[in-house]
């Protein structure tokens, strides 16, 4: 083998290792304090039965093609119809993943001559879409509505004439905090702007029947939302909901939708069942809130952590090496907690991302906090 061909890639990997940033794949092990399976649906009997029933009636595993070719299955259309009704939107479109959906939205909808203002801590898929899209884009300080408005007014003062787009997460994946939803909607109305709300970590957990934090503004002409099917819904893929005109535009102009093989019809069947479970089993959300409160209370008392108030609890350590050592020690004790490092989070804010799900109970949470206290004392 000609090693010189791979030299620059090998050097890059060695550089990551020196900075404690080299990533490797590890099997699942220990109690689940790292997944996004917030409601414990991924291995639920009802989702399994829904997929089994779909297979029994002849639903194929693969879609076999683009939705615009032969890949458009009845399960896709049934899911989209149910999702539009559930979330209160004109129309829904099913994508293969949340990453692709965010990228698709921000490369297709904001047009040349428009301005896209993106929260600096928004998901990587939003940043990738902004960079690859046709609109000019600006980053705004996290959850700072004034910074968003300043970006808009400066752009207008410099001659910007197009439409304004604002893109945020409703519940942030690494900090567990919420976007200032009402203030952003008011700002959008003031400037006749569109908003894209990424509800990936809110769908199923927050809002009436788990419809998300943007539920109150669904159905508006200037609101587009993304609902992950691969987190609290326990399946995979993502649903984009919004005005029918914008969804029709995506079908006609969105390259990641047009040219990608459609998601598995079995996942559409699973996601459809998950939406039904959200209505049928509200106790799941109530139980999750109890676990969130339990963890927040104990982490505040034992570790001085300010509770996030959500199922995502960051524990910022700062130093990359210490963060990964603490995470490894917790994993060795049977608690699956992962360390999060730059560039996923800003420099100096390496952290443990503690995720609360129905896959653990309050006894598990108490044991995890006790282990964390002991590990930190030795780290």
Can you describe what's shown?
With 379 residues, this protein is of the alpha/beta class. The protein has two domains: 27-41 and 282-378, Alpha-Beta Complex (Aspartate Aminotransferase, domain 1), CATH 3.90.1150; 59-280, Aspartate Aminotransferase, domain 2, CATH 3.40.640.10. It has helices spanning 7-18, 45-56, 74-87, 98-108, 124-132, 145-157, 181-190, 244-253, 255-258, 265-280, 283-303, 320-332, 362-378, and strands at 31-32, 91-95, 115-119, 136-140, 164-169, 194-198, 223-228, 238-242, 312-318, 335-336, 338-340, 350-355. Helix 2 crosses helix 10 (265-280) and helix 4 (98-108) runs parallel beside helix 5 (124-132). The model has no long low-confidence stretch (mean pLDDT 96).
Q: How big a fraction of the residues is strand?
A: 15-25%
Adjacency order of strands in the biggest sheet: 2-8-7-6-5-3-4
| Class of secondary structure makeup | alpha/beta
Helical element count? 13
CATH homologous superfamily annotation of the largest domain: Type I PLP-dependent aspartate aminotransferase-like (Major domain)
**Which CATH C-level class of the largest domain is it?**
Alpha Beta
Relative helix content:
40-55%
Rg from Cα: 21 Å
Q: Write down the CATH topology of the largest domain.
A: Aspartate Aminotransferase, domain 2
Distance between the termini: 42 Å
Shape: globular
Order of helices and strands: HEHHEHEHEHEHEEEHHHHEHEEEH
- Overall number of strands: 12
